[in-house]
From TrEMBL:
UniProt-listed InterPro entries: ABC1_dom (IPR004147), Kinase-like_dom_sf (IPR011009), UbiB (IPR010232), UbiB_bact (IPR045308), UbiB_kinase (IPR050154)
Name of the gene encoding the protein in the UniProt record: ubiB
SUPFAM superfamilies registered for this protein in UniProt: Protein kinase-like (PK-like) (SSF56112)
Family of the protein in this entry: Belongs to the protein kinase superfamily. ADCK protein kinase family.
Signal sequence coordinates: none
A biological process term (GO) from this entry: ubiquinone biosynthetic process
Domain of life: Bacteria
Keywords assigned: ATP-binding, Cell inner membrane, Cell membrane, Kinase, Membrane, Nucleotide-binding, Transferase, Transmembrane, Transmembrane helix, Ubiquinone, Ubiquinone biosynthesis
Positions of the ABC1 atypical kinase-like domain: 88-330
One GO molecular-function entry: kinase activity
Protein known as: Ubiquinone biosynthesis regulatory protein kinase UbiB
Associated pathway: Cofactor biosynthesis; ubiquinone biosynthesis [regulation]
Length: 509
């Protein structure tokens, strides 16, 4: 089975000329000339990016998803390939409803009609890992039922194994292979994909995001119905809204597109900097708009997390960018250890300024985050900057935000929209609000600790004296032991001398 799958991958690769992409890395050109002798008959009118995208689409949903993930690694791919892979859409034909019903009935151990009052046999969405049907719970509550694609675990394990083999071969046979880190990329992809195979994990992510935005005026997240959820089935509140890509329908329901675009920026920065937990798959298919103008988030299979160190680093960099303080940006990278300590700050500062200065004071329609990120990555490679895996999803999400912003309001000034939020967040982290928040958080601990202060103070004052006494007693014990050992050794020496003397006397006498 694996050999047949491998043969298909090789055949598709040759059909779309993917071998040429690899051969182009050979600067001597000799290998490409030899290869051309065997495949002289092939002619390609499409660009290499289009051919790569079409090849992945031909290989199936797992490879399409891999291409989507690769499109976020602009630190590794040339811009033409990354841009084309970003166009991949995970349009996968639905699996037969009989198999969907089989998964549900196997999970609940009862017929479908005993689980739901009504179950729509026609899926409303289908992707590589799961598909969604609308249904009603026994009490009439409208829900969306997400069902894991049957047998997907085996398919994924099989294709991941092939990707790992291809990555090893790429590193060994291609001079650029090591720089592209193919095994690291496949491992990263495998982690994200396997996370999506557990719908309980997705349900918990949905629940967490909903809790983070309770009573929010910007974002609504569906409720999870835990009693109906498991690893292969997830049941959540059915959401009613207009897909964010349908701008004419949004205008017809009275939605202010400019306000909507600004709200999208605020939602993004709130998730990243306030919560350190963000929706990392914010393409138009996963976002609806409620009649009251709030965003509706859907599909929580891919979520990103950031720790406090990451958040502080990002906030400092964003604010420094907004203030055009490129020296602060350079220092932040060096202090975080993301570029070598030997890096000259002035050279790194000048390189960052060259990338960022041209994009300021321009509306969103006149700039591209994709191109800016690409140039920053090229600069980073020049200064031996290490790519931070935890920020890859953030980069992908930022590109999604760019696309939504262009669609809703091409004149959106992202900088002016984001700067006040970041300044407020930094003030809450480092200013007097941070002090008050810290006191509030620690107050319960202080209430428990205050009655113990006299005892703790007495212990702290007497502890050095007690330690000194113990040390003195230990030293005295060791000295006494040493004296006993010395006396014993002396006695043994006397006995040995006496024994030797007696033996000599016997032999001589």
């Amino acid at each position: 089975m694996r050999l047949f799958r491998l043969a298909k991958i090789v055949t598709v690769g040759l059909r779309f000329g993917l071998d040429r992409i690899v051969l182009e890395a050979d600067t001597s050109g000799r290998l490409a000339k030899v290869w051309q002798v065997f495949f002289f008959w092939r002619r390609f009118d499409e660009s290499r990016g289009v051919r790569l995208r079409r090849a992945l689409e031909s290989l199936g949903p797992i490879f399409v998803k891999f291409g989507q993930m690769l499109s976020t690694r602009r630190d590794l791919l040339p811009p033409d390939l990354a841009d084309e892979l970003a166009l991949l859409q995970d349009r996968v034909p639905p699996f037969p409803v009989e198999r969907a019903l089989g998964v549900i009935e196997d999970f609940y151990q009862k017929p479908i009609d005993e689980v739901f009052r009504n179950f729509n046999r026609t899926p409303v969405a289908s992707a590589s890992v799961a598909q969604v049907h609308f249904a009603e719970l026994p009490d009439g509550t409208e829900v969306a039922v997400k069902i894991l694609r049957p047998g997907i675990e085996r398919v994924i394990a099989h294709d991941i194994a092939l990707l790992e083999t291809a990555a090893i071969m790429l590193e060994k046979l291609w001079v650029e292979g090591r720089r592209l880190k193919p095994r690291e990329v496949v491992a990263e992809f495998s982690k994200y994909l396997n996370d999506e195979l557990d719908l309980m994990r997705e349900a918990s992510s949905c629940s967490q995001l909903r809790r983070n935005f309770t009573d929010s005026a910007l974002l609504v997240v569906p409720e999870v119905y835990w009693d109906w959820c498991g690893k292969s089935v997830m049941v959540m509140e059915r959401m009613h809204g207009v897909p964010i890509s349908q701008t004419e329908a949004l205008r017809a329901q009275g939605t202010d597109l400019s306000a909507l675009s600004r709200a999208g920026v605020e939602i993004f920065f709130t998730q990243v900097f306030r919560d350190g937990f963000f929706h990392a798959d914010m393409h138009p298919g996963n976002i609806f708009v409620h009649a009251d103008g709030r965003y509706i988030a859907l599909d929580f299979g891919i979520m990103g997390t950031l720790n406090e160190e990451d958040k502080n680093y990002l906030a400092q960099n964003f604010l420094a960018f907004f203030k055009r303080d490129y020296r602060r940006v350079a220092l932040a990278h060096i202090e975080a250890g993301w570029v070598p300590a030997k890096t000259r700050v002035d050279e790194f500062e000048a390189a960052i300024r060259t990338v960022c200065e041209p994009i300021f004071d321009k509306p969103l329609k006149d700039i591209s985050f994709g191109k800016t990120l690409l140039r920053l990555f090229q600069t980073a490679r020049r200064f031996e900057m290490e790519v931070q895996p935890q920020l890859v999803l953030l980069q992908k999400t930022l590109l999604n935000i760019e696309g939504l912003g262009r669609q809703l309001d091409p004149d959106l000034d992202l900088w002016k929209t984001a700067k006040p939020f970041l300044e407020r967040w930094m003030d809450e982290q480092m200013g007097w609000r941070a002090l008050l928040a810290g006191i509030k958080d620690e107050a319960p601990n202080w209430a428990a600790t205050l009655p113990q202060l006299p005892r703790l103070a007495h212990k702290a004052l007497t502890e050095p004296e007690r330690r000194d006494r113990i040390h003195r007693e230990e030293i005295a014990r060791l000295e006494a032991t040493q004296r006993r050992q010395n006396r014993l050794l002396g006695l043994i020496g006397v006995l040995l001398v006496a024994m030797v003397g007696m033996e000599l006397y016997r032999l001589l006498g």
